[in-house]
Amino acid sequence: MLKKAKALQTELTRIRRTIHQNPELGFEEFETAGLVSETLHKLDIEHQTGVGRTGVVARIGNGSGPVIGIRADMDALPIQEANDVIYKSQVAGKMHACGHDAHTTMLLGAAMLLKDEQFDGEIRLLFQPSEERQDSEGVSGATAMIDEGATEGLDAVLALHVSGQLDRGMVSIDDGFILANVDRVVGRIIGKGGHGAAPHLSRDPIFMLAPVLTALHGIVSRWIDPGQPAVVTIGKVAGGTTNNVIPSQVELDLTLRSMDDGVRQQLIAEVEQAFSVARAMGGDYEIEIYPGYPATYNDPQVADWIRQTAKGMIGEENVVARGPVMGAEDFGYMSRASKGAMMILGAKEPGGRERFLHHPEFDLDESALPIGSAILAQTALRFVRGDFL
């Protein structure tokens, strides 16, 4: 399978660069979905467009046996690309800085590898929109596709994510929770504005900010079980307009990360408790909670299928376990709707510099594309053929 995939290198590179040059944000992936559909048409693979708004679902097989899904996300980020390459983004302020162009390409590569295989069952290809953002109703691409039945009847679901820190030719796969719950909290410390020369006639929210910040930064170290992963990060503090005016409020924007659902709820409660310090100082507060994605859980059995396949394909020494990280992914919805697992695919040029996700200089070694396609295709094929005990 890997030999067949490597023969597709030129075509996979072309597809990836086409997508990279034409990035589209979440639920706007019309051109990307069109390219996916056009490619599937050429392969004579049955598929449906407009699933989950801009997603594409394709089916290979006769549907009379086990059913496994393979998911790839398609959306880009609102980042201005800083790379000087021939395939640089042609859309100002938008860039594939998280590798979704490669994910989509590798799933199309898997389709090319699987289209002529014979088996009883179904391999379902899920080209998902909007992983990077939710709409105003909290809907992401994964939830939109699940709501429209894209994952209905799946026995298992596979996915991958590229890494610019892991060498090309390597794979990381872990059991259990691999990515975190994520929630956003916007909080406001409310005081009473006034003249900077007469602070005694005001209730200065900037003065109240310091103890609130101390309380927020103490949540993880003082109130969360030290054995539980948790993060509280304050990414934005905004208040005031000039030096001699005391503002009426200060706004803070936070991200909360956790693995355990109980800790997830505790973080939210502790954040509210921290903001309440403002009341002890004569002010007030309000918070708005924006629930994000659930933690991504790798089913140990599905993860082992990927692990077995990868070891047989690229060598046992090239399959590692990196442990959980506190990033988040809406694949967590799919891996809860059906048992699933996500592998991390090395995409750093060996000896080259690390490339970080969501960075304007993110890029990848395109010779990783056939490896990802082959592992996804072979794992799915072995499953429907009953090769895993």
Could you list some keywords that capture this structure?
single chain; 389 residues; alpha/beta; Aminopeptidase; Alpha-Beta Plaits; 2 domains; eight-stranded mixed β-sheet; four-stranded antiparallel β-sheet; 12 helices; 16 strands; elongated
Report on this structure.
The two termini are 21 Å apart. An 8-stranded mixed beta sheet has the order 1-2-4-3-5-16-6-15, sandwiched between helices. The protein contains 12 helices and 16 strands. Helix 2 runs antiparallel to helix 4 (100-114), helix 4 (100-114) packs across helix 12 and helix 10 packs across helix 12 (369-384). The protein has 2 domains: 2-178 and 295-384, Aminopeptidase (3-Layer(aba) Sandwich); 181-291, 2-Layer Sandwich (Alpha-Beta Plaits), CATH 3.30.70.360. It is of the alpha/beta class and 389 residues long. The protein is elongated.
